[in-house]
Amino acid sequence: MAGGVLREFLRNLSMCFAVGAAGGLIYALALWAMGRYGLSYRLGVDIAPYLSNAYLYQRIVWGGICGLVLLLPFQRAWFSRGLILSLIPAGVLLLVVLPMRGYGPGALGLGTLTPLVVWLACAAGGVMASGLLRAQGK
């Protein structure tokens, strides 16, 4: 009995990491596309990452780690679950990571609408991860 519970937990853990990694890829591509096609610039946000292996790798791994939040018993429709849970990595980026890099609280040093751009990219990844999880019956 205990072996079955552990096996199911490890299966769920692996699945959440995998869909989170896919979500991290979508987040990275969404942020890159917003910079590449000028949406960030038109919103007054100085974010236009260069698409490289290092850029993708870091976001895919962190996406997998953030995907572990999908283990929480959050009973909502998959789309709203993805949108709401994407607030967690967006918050970490805006309140911890980017301020530590010198962009100020909310990374407003990159532009007034930086929180919107970051959340939109995180939301794209969150919805993708949540949708993939739903496709697996979770």
UniProtKB/TrEMBL annotation:
Keywords: Membrane, Transmembrane, Transmembrane helix
The keyword Membrane is annotated on this UniProt entry: yes
Highest taxon, organism lineage: Bacteria
Membrane spanning stretches: 12-34, 54-72, 84-104, 116-135
Protein's name according to its UniProt entry: Uncharacterized protein
Gene source species: Microbulbifer aggregans
Taxonomic lineage of the native organism: Bacteria, Pseudomonadati, Pseudomonadota, Gammaproteobacteria, Cellvibrionales
